[in-house]
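#struct-queue
[09:14] JT: dropping the first one here, sequence first, then the structure tokens:
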Amino acid sequence: MAVDPGPYDLDTTGLILGPRGDATPKALTPSFYGELDSEFGGFAGHVLVSKHSFREAWGTWEMHPKGDEIVYLLSGNVDFVLWQNGREKALRVDQAGSCIAVPKGVWHTVRPREATTLLFFTPGEDTQHAETPPASGTS
């Protein structure tokens, strides 16, 4: 069955792109992220398209081992911080319409300089989270 073309509000709905190019909308609920693995076969080969707004720094770091994450700035001013070679590398993203590609396997976090809205294209299979980048996470 073909997907309903929408429109969708990315404030309330995530879009999951499947390994065959199919798009599946899924309501953003408190259990959204926990349900992705069970509903989409471990999220293998899938990409989550989502929009998030931030005023404060993330309290954690994350890493996507199965693919590069594309992050597109809709509005705001943010430091996207990568953990590379055992130290932080901050990428300033302050022009709406610009984007970065976080390499697969690289730990990263976000530190907004003002209210910021980002569009994410996340290969979510086996995503990991940590309070600090692991000592061995020196990609």
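[09:21] JT: and here's the second one, same format:
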Amino acid sequence: MPLKTIPLNPAWTGDTKLDLRAIYRKPSGDLTGGLPLRRHHAWEAKGLTYVTLADAESLSMAVPFLRANGLNPQDYVVGIDGDGRPTPWSTDLYLADTAATQVSADAALQALVAQFGVDVVEQIKGIKVPAHLRGDAKPAKAKATA
């Protein structure tokens, strides 16, 4: 079962009485613990990216908002917390999804390197292609047209 993340509702952020907690991803890719969602704009200013709600209590508070948007809260339950309550967060599922996404992204980048060469891909994408994806790839020769 993949991790289905709860979409961010702007009504949960800013000056609100809801004390929702959320998981954020740092620019380094590391994850945070349950940060207060009402400080969402402060976290964004620090470069953090919202991932999903962090715990069973936050999910239970978000249920009316999810239903109002035509979403089924049960679709976001990925496990049971230590108190036996349904929770929307699973580190294991998140890491498995991230690994699968990375494999797919690596394959796409490797295909571009094989087709166009490392230098071209790095220049166009503005990235440094990781050593494990460089291989012996040489750009494909263009066919001469006469």
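[09:30] RK: nice, looked through the second one.
[09:31] RK: Helices lie at 40-45, 56-68, 91-116, 118-125, 131-134.
[09:31] JT: good to know. The CA atoms of residues 77 and 88 lie 5 Å apart.
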